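Hey L., structure's done. Input below.
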Amino acid sequence: MSSPHAPLPDRPPGGHPTVPVPAGAGSVSGPAHPLPTPAPPLYTIRDSRPCDLPITARLHIRELRMGLFPRLGPWFVGRWHRAYQESPVAVALSAVRRDGDSGEEIVGFLIGATDRAAFLRELVTRHRRALLFRGALALALRPGVLTRFLRTRLRPYLGRLRNAEGRSLRGQGTRTADLTAIVIVPSLRGSGVGSALVTEFLHRCAAAGTPAAELVTVTGSSGAAAFYARTGWVDMGGSVTRDGVQVQRFRCRTDGASAN
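Output:
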């Protein structure tokens, strides 16, 4: 998981901005100093769009390899991201910056669910056929991934599908949000992009009436555990994935949501 950091400063380096001085005012001589031209923001946060999917899929595969889905390629990952864009119980955000006159450049994204159980039910009922088709084709084209899937994941995945179908008939319990993935391009890590994405996600969870959010990140320097520990997320303990990766689970309340 790419690691977000502190937000950008709201002043230019060196202290206060210069202000204009009227000619002839007091004992000051010389020409007035014009106001500096404000620098454009490095990025903005907006809802992800269908045209973002090829880019966010490639970013996910390149920067966040944890789990099975990134190994299934951009065709599968793009369709998976699309499920978040289309769901009323999910959030898909893109961080973009202006790229001169040529349009926007996507520099990060976040996907998550404001109700984890409801979104899983939606995947099983609404998106299952499309995801199974793309996943099966991706596995057929990747024998090594297929072998690992059959050995470590087939039975648990079938169990999750059955459990999701059963829960859809029993109604809802306590809502918990899930921050599924967040990725920032390496050149902007530490700029505040990740912090802005997380904060917006938590605000949307709070607006949806979800009291808490959870996430999983890789332990160590390749994950974002230190960031979440500093910004109000509570460490719920570690575990080892089926791929042998050490991970930590974090939880955060969404009321008064802030990742800063």
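The domain at 44-253 is CATH 3.40.630.30 (Aminopeptidase). The CA atoms of residues 43 and 97 lie 4 Å apart.

-- N.
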